[in-house]
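Our consortium's second objective concerns turning raw sequence data into structural hypotheses that experimental partners can test. To show how far this objective has progressed, the report includes one record in full. It was chosen at random from the queue rather than selected for favorable results. The single chain below, 351 residues long, was entered without modification.
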Amino acid sequence: MKWMLVYIFLLLSGTLPAQIRNYNFSSIDAMAEDIDANSPDTLAQLLTASYTTDLEKVRSIFYWITSHIEYNTIRCQPRFIANKNYDGESAKDDDSVLKPLDERVAILVLKRRYALCDGYARLFKTLCDYSGIKSVVITGYARTGSGSKQFRCNHKWNAVMIDSNWYLLDATWASGYLNFDGSRFIHDFNENYFLTPPKYFFRDHYPDDIKWTLLEDPVLIPEFKHSPFKLPFFNYQITSYSPAKGIINATIGDTIKVSLYTNEPGKLLSLTDVISDDSVIIAKADSTAKANKSFVINRNNITANYIVTNIAAQWLQVIYNNRIVLRYKLNINKQPFPYPAIQIKDLADSR
């Protein structure tokens, strides 16, 4: 019986969010777009007064935050990160000293209309509190592809209870994305981080408290740590990828096969060892044939091959629809390649 209950829980946690996505939220989103207020209690009332279900209320709150709050790119600069109050959301306003921390942060975010992840998460929780919806702020590690080798807490997101079930969401990553030097934020609502199935959410969110994976048997930290870097504000319907490990051992002449699984109708995939975090630079490299551009589509699976010809290559960049989405670490065996360089070129051309 216990096994059956666990099975039912996992089945529901994996299927209910997909059913929720079939709900047409367009009218809720449109109404939320036109609402505005400067205090959390008033804003929560305006956002939820027209709805009777928690799902509708949560959607209205979530969409409002993602469409009205800018990501604070200035605070991403090193001089702010070095400050112990790096999140910028914990400052005290004179009129909110006695209020709970979540509400003080929410008031400040509504005043400024920009935030880091802490501000997004606390604003969401505060609006849910005023709407009678149970939610929590989760602290953990998010894989951002920044190149940091330290596996430590660097992000905050939320879990929310709807109809007695917990669901995961990330208002920060759903709100848009950054250009790769972190200087500019681009609003672009990402449905994939709203009530995401736990098995997908866990791929780039590792909570400090393991229970908030909402998984019965989550993978160990080392397995998560060595998955490929997944770029921030991942905005494509990619449900799986291969290789699963983030470190690829290879020798000159080897062919590395990378596969993505996505149901998007338009698919373009290329691989390159050009060292850059900027998609524009990568696109230029791609246009000058420095990237492996040939790919094969088999239904929802798209595959490209990278032939190892550069002994100094350290990273393999995966470019999907002209944007970097994954980054693998290359460990190239320093043994000399036994064939002439012209054969490498011929082999690449034949592919």
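The partners drew two points from this record. The radius of gyration is 22 Å. Confidence is low (pLDDT under 50) at residues 1-14, 76-94, 287-291, 337-351. Both points have been shared with the crystallography group to help prioritize constructs.
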